[in-house]
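Example with several molecule types.
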Amino acid sequence: MQLESLIQAARGKIPCDLLLTGARIINVFNGRIFSGSIAVHGGAIAALDARPARKVVDLEGRWVAPGFIDAHVHLESAMTVPVQFARAVLPRGTTTVVADPHEIANVLGTAGIDYILAASDGLPLQCFFALSSCVPATGLETAGARLGPAELAPYWSHPRIAALAEMMDFPGVLAADGEVLAKIAAAESRGKPVDGHAPGLGGPGLAAYVAAGIGSDHECTRADEAREKLAAGMRIMIREGTGAKNLDDLLPIVSDVNWHRIMWCTDDRHPHDLITEGHIDAMVRRAVAAGQDPVRAIQMATLTAAEYFGLRRCGALAPGRRADLVVIDDLDTIRIDSVWAGGRQVSAGNEMILADGQTAGPAAPTVMRLDPAALGLAVPAAGEQIRVIELVPGQILTGNGRARACIRAGLATADPARDLLKLIVVDRYSGRGRTGIGFVRGFGMDRGALASSVAHDSHNIIAVGGDDADLKAAVAGVVEMGGGLTAAAGGRIRAKLPLPVAGLMSLEPVDAVRRGLDRLNTVYRELGGRLSDPFMTLSFLALPVIPELKLTDQGLVDVNRFTFVPLFV
Amino acid sequence: MQLESLIQAARGKIPCDLLLTGARIINVFNGRIFSGSIAVHGGAIAALDARPARKVVDLEGRWVAPGFIDAHVHLESAMTVPVQFARAVLPRGTTTVVADPHEIANVLGTAGIDYILAASDGLPLQCFFALSSCVPATGLETAGARLGPAELAPYWSHPRIAALAEMMDFPGVLAADGEVLAKIAAAESRGKPVDGHAPGLGGPGLAAYVAAGIGSDHECTRADEAREKLAAGMRIMIREGTGAKNLDDLLPIVSDVNWHRIMWCTDDRHPHDLITEGHIDAMVRRAVAAGQDPVRAIQMATLTAAEYFGLRRCGALAPGRRADLVVIDDLDTIRIDSVWAGGRQVSAGNEMILADGQTAGPAAPTVMRLDPAALGLAVPAAGEQIRVIELVPGQILTGNGRARACIRAGLATADPARDLLKLIVVDRYSGRGRTGIGFVRGFGMDRGALASSVAHDSHNIIAVGGDDADLKAAVAGVVEMGGGLTAAAGGRIRAKLPLPVAGLMSLEPVDAVRRGLDRLNTVYRELGGRLSDPFMTLSFLALPVIPELKLTDQGLVDVNRFTFVPLFV
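Resulting structure tokens for the full complex:
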């Protein structure tokens, strides 16, 4: 932003780049709507009033809101690179995100953060980042990286680092772990907020967590939980993701007194939802449909997040702010006519009109250090009863079940007839190909295998299948693509989706990714499966912080006891 | 703050230092009052709940508010050093200030900022500072210092620098002056707010001023002016100082939607008012008396300022925040029972109970480079009509009057019979003793002289009197003290108040300063004067940015034309 010329334009001393007339301007500071003009110069708002301008656009009485802000999102969940994410959400009105590169940081460490900063540089979507605070998530798996306070230190001075990201390690906070507190102190000394992640935490634990300096939470699932956290001084991010949907439960907490401490976020929103429902606009729409005042719903989508993160140049329609404008046809349904980002029109209707010149950004290093041909998947029988990971429909927690082992030629094998499939997690970082093997019930496939390099949080390769040949083929397919998703049957790949960026992200548009997922899901259903989103389900089975039984490359983890357990009981 | 032990105390794993029971706790986040306990450890709040504690104090149902914050104050206006200011305002509930060291910076430059940082270090009153943005105020006088972006640069990393102070040079902003914009950019790049000072500014000028990045204003005098500034995105600081009182006029702007963008400040509050009315407590009290909800008045005295300045560890009663507590007997009259700062009780009733061990802090360099004996005060007659500074009762602006000169022996002299007194401003910085001489009507003294080293904004020595001998005696008295106020008559000093710190501040308590002022005012009245506060009036007569006619050491300034004019018409 060139302040000199912006000041001149604000004073009417030089012509503005653009004057939008006939606007019903939503003022998030006083909650009012007034009819007028918006003068834009050098990508910023010069004045909310008529000024001499080189170009005039008549908005014909449409409402104009500030660009929406997603206060907490993992771009990786859209399974594509930042420029494609931007193309998906800009027409939805989102012009700024505060993203936590937790997934790519787990795979690539600081190289992942470097990649995401570079790949989001100069996009019409403003991408701020919160520094991932918990890499790796646990010590129970082979991880791609470890980010301590020293590794994070150089990033604090980056102009797009806005916060310390969700502090998932609340046991570490409560134990006053030195590294955890050092990360918090680093953020605090820079005046940056520290985001929380504390599902269900209350009472003395919450007091300690807040005392440590944690300023927000996006994991509330109940209104009383959110009210307790607000009263303790936390900002609340109401989340509506693909997996976790909290808007309906939390909307009742919003009041005259606290709305300016509440904001919207999506956390994880998968391609299908981005395309069919939208992004922050979907939350605003839903809130309005539930009776929330549209202006207030928009205030929570704009000003409150900007204030919390200290983003003084966005979040409102006011002089000096970035000209991020959502032009709305109808305030009750939040039907978006067009979106302007940094003073340029980026969409009309649901279509991007921005030139496609934007590249996918720099290449990310590939991490796929394993030889699929060398995988050893045989499980010598060592008993009759085995532990089984039991899927729970619609949830990422799993049961810790038991089953009679299917023993053939002295080996425990899958038994699709009993919906007992083999699950493997293969270390893709060390080159040693450490492989954890277990069994899972609930995928429902008669045969074949699925494999994925998206496996929270360390993103080793995870695969599930009815026989070892298909498992190997599926894993080999993932490795061959340098990361991605596969479905195999009869010893060959039947469908695949390449995710060459860290094994997490495609270079294709969100819509192409969705079609790729659809093809994979079709094959899955042909193999007899009935889950609605088997790859999402699969991606959480290696996350050893979600109860009760999970599998890492190092073995089965009884999450409640936070320890490894043998397969055979 | 020791986070480790605070976390342990919050969890109840170790005993807290203190438990305050029987409190009616004012929660500024949700606006509610609830009965409970406050656990304090290591100077911070550990929990709003009972915890094991080494000491228990029963508050017997009294209300507890967070410590008050003055969002914009010049400590120098209290005419004493920070420790004495702290002793005056802590019993009034103020536990944090954001001060602009504008006066001492004008006298001593960076040495003045260094002094005030050192002199406020470790006080129970948290003193944050906004870096003075406009030193010197003008080029029409001999100044003590010049603070450009380079001089300010080293201070941005100081943990108690919270903002860039009031940008009074709004013509410089509107002209996109390079140094002005560089100062703003420096603050912005550090994530620090930029305070404004734009009396009456609206329309295109306001758009330009806000576009430059200025985030607050404390100079509104009318509700519609404040509403326009709020709508443009500025925070409003409602001011109630000794000179400027805006609370009654601005209180009507406060609403459900905007209260969290409005805060209180005193700007300049003189010893008398501090003692008789109080500080921020007086504003809260007055707002409540005017019908404002007490909780909201307290929210604006605490949370809103803390949020604006990013002071995450104060401004609320919540875990992890500094244990700054105002214990209130009666919420309607804001009668203060006791105050706790950083977990220690600092007052009971209106009395400080804190040990007096706190020293006055470091010595400030003296700047008094002139020889009073060498002053030349003779004004050779060069006409019959002279320009006269006309006092306007109750205001700091002055008229640009005319009078027949009193010519004696070829020299223009004072003529007390016509209330025509000689006014001089003597440069105390360069050693050259440059002296501006003019005449003023309105002091009403029959004889004698007053002199002061407090003369906004450059703080040269200003004196007014009926004859040259008394003027010289009064100035010599100021010089001899290394700064201060004097009243002389008959060629000798009749009363004096030493202000040895930069010629602006005493080392004595506020109450002693007030008694010193009272003695001076008594002498003034004995000399025939009738102004209620002659030294305050005098202190603004050298400020060449307030219309219409002012005097600097370089001569008479026609402020409307911003140029020097001759004494004789």
